[in-house]
Amino acid sequence: MIKILLYYTYAPIENPEQLVKLQKSVCERLEIKGRILIATEGINGTISGQEQALDQYMAEAMSYPGLADIEWKISDGPEEAFPRLRVVVRDEIVTLGLKKQNADVHLNNKAHYIEPNELLSLYENNDEFTIIDARNEYEARIGKFKNALTPDINSFREFPEFVKSIEHLKDKPVVTYCTGGIRCEKASAYMREQGFTDVRQLHGGIHRYSTETGGKNFEGEMYIFDSRIHTPVNSVNPSVISECIHCRTKVSRYINCCNVTCNKQIIICEDCDKKFEGGCSVYCQQNSRYKN
Ligand SMILES: [Zn+2]
Ligand SMILES: [Zn+2]
After folding, report:
1. Does the domain at residues 99-231 carry the CATH identifier 3.40.250.10?
2. Cystine design at 240: which of 1, 38, 45, 250 (Cβ 3.0–4.6 Å)?
3. Ligand with minimal distance to 250 CA
């Protein structure tokens, strides 16, 4: 059985290069694929492999100093979730990009967690709160929490710019969320440093919310970073919020445009996929280099 493993931890890593070597050799031996980012601030992995291999992986990773507190998120995966293994050193495990401006966030300013069931209660009780998506536009396009503010950003580096546009919420109750929680650790710390007084971050992200509550009040599906591109979240009151780029039919179906030089991620229905041969436009349809 192929499983997907998501995890992160912010913990000081003294020698990222050394940990890269170690992680590579463990993953190669266990035939694990996917992406692992390592920085002096921590480690972030999205990997796939056989269930037993991932059990072994978790046991071995836990034994590395400083990595004992990782919270693992395991789910079923497709056969070819990731084409290869990439283990690399980065400046940050999620890039806010403030380091170079000497304005980096302090993670000890991160917001308190709100647990999935508590968020569900906020919705059920019609409490006053603003829910903020800390992910990118192309992720929220296929699914988001009900009433969420979704920033029009293409990378997490643009999140600080978005925060400037919501200064009117500084003294209001705010909840942030992302896929698995890693971006909220920084997003919430950043917001608090900008003077937001009542911020909480969804513990474990959409992923854990789906597992623990059935996903009620999540609209559409969750964008994910393996070959499936998206996966259902809500088994209570599911809905579809995204529209086919061509005919505007409501559909949760994401592909990469057939023209590799375009390669835009597009929502497309099956009929239009056939008609445009996987293209986002007639131009791309006619200029696809990999047409069958
Ligand atoms: Zn269509
Ligand atoms: Zn295109």
Report:
1. yes
2. 250
3. 1
